[in-house]
Sequence to fold (196 residues):
Amino acid sequence: MKTRIKELRARDKLTQEELAKMVSVRRETIVFLEKGKYNPSLKLAYDIAKVFNLQIEDVFLFDND
Amino acid sequence: MNMRNTKFILFTLIGLTLTFAGGIAMYSTMTELVVTDYLIYSAIGLIAFFSIVVAFRNLKAEKKGLIVEDELSRKIKEKAAANSFTASIYLWTMILLFTIDSNIRNETLLGIGIVGMGLIFIGFWFYHNNK
Fold:
């Protein structure tokens, strides 16, 4: 799964730490998400999408593989 | 976990490590330590060092207002625990197989097994954290 978190963070001028604080996770979790190494829970995906005022599918790009 | 808890854990860890180190120092004056003793004590020291580093890191994160445990860290811990459980079965089997006719004391074997389990867990935790 790919994410647009890095791109959206840059758009909103947010650091990884700030985003982590906003969605109540560790900064390392944001790093893992940006690298596509971790599939978040539905709640975390929803919280992150909410920060960027987008739908989950606009932030997390699912592929069929 | 709040900052007070983390501070308590950190000070307890440091206290226990110092007490343990003092105990070993006193013990070493009464009896001569052998290689296996040094190995076990070094491994215990490594586990204590690792725990203190993690506690310091958590305290630093909490001071910044960040949380120290989330869904990913719990998942990593669970994976490391599951893997180290499987690995420890092999470890104990090996210990039993290779020491069945040896003169090594039971206490030493138990020490090797328990410390080994701790080290295996740390190894898997690092692996999953940096995968």
Q: What stands out?
A: Chain B has two domains: 1-69, 70-131. The mean pLDDT of chain B is 84. Residues 70-131 of chain B form one domain.
